[in-house]
Specification:
Layout lengths: L1 E6 L6 H15 L3 E6 L15 E4 L10 H14 L5 E4 L8 H5 L8 E5 L11 H15 L4 E4 L2 H11 L4 E2 L21 E5 L8 H10 L6 E5 L5 H10 L6 E5 L5 H6 L2 E4 L8 H8 L4 E4 L3 H7 L5 E4 L4 H13 L5 H6 L6 H12 L1
Parallel strand pairs: 1-2, 1-4, 2-3, 4-5, 5-6, 6-7, 8-9, 8-11, 9-10, 11-12, 12-13
């Protein structure tokens, strides 16, 4: 089977990381895989396996206003002249590429599989804004041969919005052979958060919540980088948390930080599924997360592996962190067992079956 993936670039994002992981898994399963991109720029580029071919648009198409339209034309031109069995459209951001790809002559057109990666309903998007989003999404997804959601909750919303069948395939977060679990380290506890420093991740609320945590011996590390890093740094200074909060920057792998953590915190305003929750649980660490993703309910609903709190509520987030720190360190094996179904091998096979 010959499969294509279209990416705008290799930006630091969950969509790009998951697409790269799937590409490697499909190649390992025997498929011939190519990633067509507007630009090879971005830190995720170094994670692409050697077995996956990367083709950059000529000339390159950097990310800016209107660039997705240009990328769609370039991608359609590339795939029109080559025989592919299927093309994977990784997430909502790339949906505008479906229409130009769908115009390839029918008897040569690859099957188009589009993934829903971001929330279809958000707290701040109501009324006309939600209606407009749904109408635009229906147009963008009209040419897809199959739509994939990451949870049954998201699939139910999508079926109601789009009036089309929607497949449920879990997010391929974990490698088939996971690193060895380690016990929670002794000494003063560490809370870890990770992600891009953007409005969506709401790290300012996390810092404000940390200022309210009553455990004075706990520290916080927010791993990642992005345009709002200076804003978060300023808030840390304003709250006098400079000695207790660190910003280590971007890392290729957050697992070493998870191994050091007592608790993982997710403060986002919205997420598609929240892959980082799965990663934290796979490391055997409990999670405190805002109710920004179906994963908060699906994985933390019983309270045993963590707690879910309202969005943008520093007091609630602080209370949940204190509650988790009050508990004895959990058994990492019991927590990690919850996320066994998120390993990439079986999920990659589900996608291959869908393409077939």
């Amino acid at each position: 089977m010959r499969l294509g993936i279209v990416l705008h670039d290799f930006a630091l994002g969950g969509t790009e990381r998951i697409a790269v992981r799937l590409a490697e898994a499909w190649a390992r399963a025997g498929a011939e895989v190519e990633i067509f991109c507007g630009s090879e720029a971005g830190p995720i580029r170094s994670l692409v396996a050697r077995s996956v071919r990367v083709v950059e648009a000529d000339p390159p198409i950097p990310r800016r206003i209107g660039s997705r339209k240009r990328l769609g034309v370039a991608a359609a031109s590339y795939f029109r002249d080559r025989r592919f069995d299927g093309i994977f459209i990784p997430g909502n951001f790339h949906w505008p590429l479906i229409a130009p790809l769908g115009k390839i002559v029918q008897n040569r057109r690859p099957r188009l599989v589009a993934q829903i990666s971001s929330a279809l309903r958000k707290a701040g998007r109501r009324g006309f804004r939600q209606h407009f989003f749904e109408a635009r999404s229906r147009r963008r997804l009209a040419g897809a041969d199959a739509i994939v959601a990451l949870s049954e909750q998201a699939a139910s919303q999508a079926r109601a919005m789009f009036g089309k069948p929607v497949h449920v395939i879990r997010l391929p977060v974990l490698p088939d052979e996971s690193p060895t679990l380690v016990m929670v380290p002794g000494g003063d506890p560490l809370v870890v958060a990770a992600g891009r420093f953007v409005e969506q991740k709401d790290f300012t609320t996390l810092v404000e919540a940390f200022a309210l945590v009553r455990h004075s011996n706990v520290s916080l590390a927010i791993v990642g980088d992005g345009p709002q890093r200076n804003r978060v740094t300023q808030r840390i200074r304003e709250l006098g948390l400079g000695r207790r909060v660190t910003l280590p920057g971007y890392v290729d792998d957050i697992r070493p930080w998870l191994d050091r953590a007592r608790v993982f915190a997710l403060s986002s305003r919205h997420e598609g599924y929240g892959a980082v929750i799965v990663e934290a649980l796979a490391a055997g660490r409990p999670v405190v997360a805002t109710d920004c993703t179906p994963a908060a309910t699906e994985l933390l609903g019983d309270g045993e592996a963590g707690l879910a709190v309202p969005i943008a509520d520093p007091a609630a987030l602080a209370g949940a962190l204190d509650a988790m720190l009050d508990r004895p360190p959990p058994d990492p094996i019991a927590i990690a067992r919850r996320v066994e179904p998120w390993k990439i091998g079986p999920i990659a096979e589900q996608y291959l079956d869908l393409f077939e």
